[in-house]
Structures are given as C-alpha cells and as structure tokens.
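Fold this complex.
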Amino acid sequence: MYPSRFGYESPKTVEEAVALLDASGGEAKVLAGGQSLVPMLRLRFAAPEMLIDINGIEGLRYHRVDADGTIRIGALCRHEDLEEDDAVAKAVPTIAAAAPLVADPIVRTRGTFVGSVCHADPQGDWAATMTALGGHIVAQGPKGKRDIPIADFVIGPFQNTLAFNEIAVEAVIPAPKGVRIGNYLKLERRVGDFATASVAVALDMVGDTVADAGIALAGVGGRTINANAAASELIGKKLTAENIASVAAAVAAVAEPRTDHRGSADYKRQIVKTFVERILTGLLSTSQKAA
Amino acid sequence: MTSLYDEVQAAPGEGVPTRRVTIKVNGADRTVDVEPRLLLAHLLRQGLKLTGTHTGCDTSNCGACTILFEGRPIKSCTMLAVQADGHSIETVEGMATASELHPIQEGFKEEHGLQCGFCTPGMMMAAKALLDKNDNPTEDEVRWALSGNLCRCTGYQNIVKSVLWAAEKMRAESK
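Structure:
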C-alpha cells in the first residue's frame, strides 16, 4: 500500500515548524523517525493533510547528562544512539537495557526516543520507560516552551497531551536521588514482534535504601500501565525478598492483559510478576555485591 | 492486472504537487520530481528501475527493502523519497563492480545463503552495515544484526555462514 496524498514541508528551525503546525489548524503531523507514522500512512490509519518533517532541523539529535545529573534527550535522538555504551546509558540503566530491545536493529537507526513516547503505543518501550523514570516532555508551541510531566503526557492508547501546534522537542529525566539503578525486561516471540509483556523498573538508591521507585508496563493493557503506586511500597526501605514479592504481586494486579495468540491474560500477568521479581532480585544482588 | 505498486507512479500525474529532489544513489546524483507520498523503495524500483531492492511487507517488518542511508541500514519502505533529498544512499546494485562480486555476495554464493532470493538484497545490505562497523563479528553479532530481516526459506543458518565467510574474506583482503 501507499499513503494517501499529503503536503510536505521540511522546515529548518523549530519555530518555523511550529508556525507550519499552527497554520495547519490541526491537520498536520510531525515526521521525525517515521517508523510508526510511515507504516500508519501506508495502511491509511493516518491521513494527514500535511507532514512536517523535522529531520532537517539542526541541533535536535542529542542526548546528554548535564552537570547536575539531569538527562536530556533531543527530538531526533535515534534509538540506536542510546544503544551505544555512552553516558546516558550508564546514567540510566533502564534505558540501556531497553534500547537494544526496541523494534529491530534497522528500525532503531531511524526511530526516535521522543517520537516513540509521543506515539504512546501501549506496546511502546519508551513510554513505559519514561513512566517508570518519571520525567517530563518539553513541548514547544507558538507561545514558547512548557514542561509536561510524563504522567500527564501519555494519557491513553496513542494519545498524548500535545496541543495541535506544539512539538515535543526534548525528553527530560531528572537527576536521581542518590544512585539510579534499574532494568527492562521484554518477552517477545521474535525480534520486532509485539511484546507479550514488558516491565520497566527504575530505582534511586541512597546507600541500600530505596529513595524513589518507578515501575511501568507495556504490552499488558490498552495503554501504558503506570504501576508507580505499587512500586512506592519500596520507598524508604531496603530491598528484601519479602517486599520484592509483595511489590511483584501488586504490580501484576494492576496489569490489564488480554488473552490473545501471545498468551492468556493469566499467563501475561504471571510474566509481569516474574519479571518484576527477577529485576528487583537482580538489583538487590548487584547492590549487595557492590557494597 | 495492475499491481498496487504500479499505481503511484514515480512520475506523478498532471497537476499533482511534486518536489524536486536530488539523491546520491550508489555514488551518482539522481534528480527526480516526486510526489511527497512516494516511498523511497518505490522510487528506487519504479522511478530509477533499481529493482534489486525488494518490498515484501506493508508494516516495516520484513527488511527486504533494506538499503544504506548515509551508511546506516534503513527500511526504504518506511522512508519517503522526499526525505532522501540531499542524502547519499546505497542499494544492492552498488555492491558488485562490472567484473567482481562484493565479498558479501560471494559469501552468499559460496555458503548457499539463499533459496528463493527475495530477502537476499536486504540481508546483504544489513550485513554490509554490520561489516562496515565490525569486520570481525561473532556469530551472535551477525544474528543480532540480521534480526530485522525475515527469511522464509533458509532458517538463517546459511545466511549467517555467508556473512561470516564474507567477513573473513574482507579481513584477508584488507591485510
């Protein structure tokens, strides 16, 4: 298949792109990596009047750790940029673990982190990762920039809270309280398939005490599942076999899996529980070795 | 019967808005007027008659259309032709010279890395992207690099052998 007809602009600045979006009155879509959008155009799930290609805008392909520990990921940072052994991957182990599991190696050369969060696919690895990490998205519109906390950004399947004339220019992950640890596990039948279940865990540790905890799930519901409330049981405590088991059960309880050809709802819930336990037990044993 | 792929012509109809783009294809600049909705894979196949790039699926799954875009592998069915304006791309036609196969092509021949051959151009371009970065990959690294490319015939075993064969040959040649 091929897409329906659309206009195409390739602005050179974010301001120009925002002006084009504003003038479109809501009929334009931003094209970044295009690894979800172009297939959607081809299948005609999307038929915008105009595509605004931001790939020609200089200065959006970056990812860095600021001096204060804040992580910033620009709108054109590709998945593969985060796969390399670099500062961001070291600072955010959950990102380092998820990056090689996004789609397949060829899609990862084009697809973008920020675009994936915006797409808000219930299967999306980065929307779940960001939800566990608790960062925010910087949106730029005609009146300037605003920060949208991730919990208020990804609000449903394929739904974010950008206004029609705003572009998500950056994802920001705050500096950790102490040392950030975490992991990401995904069960898929083959590379590039939809996940049977994915679990993102991010913990901030002060000594051996959990200072902050985030858990989110992908593939086990009609939206990205925010399990941060269940994870908060760990805050202020040391990880133990008992509280790991309790959190794993609580996280599995908030999953909303459906039975399909990838497995029954019960099976997927069991995978979530097992993955949460496996990740937290792994983090506990690593931190014990480090101590 | 007209196939679907023939319907959006690389040469657009009268009155259809187009953009003029110049793309360096296998080292030579090609300038064409394209409709924005034309996919790069379709421009290559229909407009430029480079039919070595195959299109196998509608969902960015199969990787048969893999080409190199600025040296990195991409799925050309998931990029618009207009997006390649001003960029350099490499297709399977750019691999061999008039007299000599590329070592990766030789590898596929020597190790029987294909049966029906449909996935082969994409496999070879993905392999080239790997070997350009890593001239001595392990079997696992080869399998990982090819994990975005589907083959329905071989079971992958001989494809992996082919790439390892090519890597060895390329290392020997560069000495």
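Chain B has six helices and five strands.
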